[in-house]
From TrEMBL:
GO terms for biological process: monocarboxylic acid metabolic process. Belongs to the short-chain dehydrogenases/reductases (SDR) family. It comes from Candidatus Giovannonibacteria bacterium RIFCSPHIGHO2_12_FULL_43_15. It comes from the Bacteria. PROSITE patterns: ADH_SHORT. InterPro entries: NAD(P)-bd_dom_sf, Sc_DH/Rdtase_CS, SDR, SDR_fam. Gene3D superfamilies: NAD(P)-binding Rossmann-like Domain (3.40.50.720). This is Short-chain dehydrogenase.
Length: 247
């Protein structure tokens, strides 16, 4: 079976991505950090043959190191062919501690995970003869694009850094024919976080040309497509999923 690692893969956007991948025959290794009961319930819905739930702090090198060590001993016919960097946080305040935590999660962790995933792909190529290009899909944000308004500069700064970093990594790993890296740049997505603020949710709907919000399932469909296109020349792209909304 072909497996996909999805960070933050048991709720919100990540859950939508995980469900879409399972629906189309992939196994999913869904990473979570908090709300364990909810994560295990999600795993039970699909059966643990198709989804594996793993608690992992993506900012902790020991946690991620163990994750990829476990992947390296998958059965011979199983391999992880893609990584979806979805886990992210919004700062609770502009306090330096919160900003550092956010940068660690939104920017540094994806960088380290891409490196570790690349090492894993090299390892299985040598040891089990796996061939083909792996895929990395990053979940960005429209307020990290140039010229976009934002109420707080710190979160957009982290996402702008993610966008730029992945452009550069995409070229590096494409030359090696190891990974094809692309980014889905999301606007407002109809998740629990937005649903708890009805006024903000409605404002986003009113200001979106399509008159509706992006759903987690729609993000999942784009992630699925990018993974299916991993052998193509689609590399370093930023695909904006925002209902046509302009700054």
């Amino acid at each position: 079976m072909k497996w996909v690692i999805v960070t933050g893969g048991t709720r919100g956007i990540g859950k939508g991505i995980s469900e879409k991948l399972i629906e189309h025959g992939y196994g999913v290794l869904a990473i979570f950090k908090e709300r364990e009961d909810e994560a295990l319930k999600f795993g039970n819905e699909y059966g643990f043959e198709r989804i594996r739930i793993r608690k992992c702090d993506v900012t902790n090198p020991q946690d991620t190191g163990r994750l990829f060590q476990d992947l390296a001993i998958f059965p011979k016919n199983d391999e992880a062919i893609a990584l979806v960097n979805n886990a992210g946080i919004y700062p609770r305040s502009s306090d330096a501690k919160d900003f550092i935590e956010m940068l660690s999660t939104n920017l540094v962790a994806p960088y380290k995970l891409i490196q570790e995933f690349a090492e894993y792909r090299r390892y299985i190529a040598i040891n089990i003869g796996a061939t083909g290009t792996g895929a990395v899909v990053n979940i960005g944000a429209v307020n990290g694009l140039p010229g976009r308004p934002a109420s707080m500069p710190l979160y957009p700064a982290s996402k702008a850094g993610l966008h730029r970093m992945c452009e550069l990594l995409a070229a590096e790993y494409a030359r090696e024919k190891l990974l094809h890296i692309n980014t889905i740049v999301c606007g407002a997505v109809d998740t629990e976080m937005l649903q708890t603020n009805p006024a903000s949710r409605q404002a986003h709907i009113d200001n979106t040309p399509t008159g509706k919000l992006t759903t987690p399932e729609e993000v999942g469909a784009v992630a699925l497509w990018l993974i299916s296109m991993r052998e193509s020349n689609l590399v370093g792209a930023q695909i904006v999923l925002n209902g046509g909304k302009c700054p």
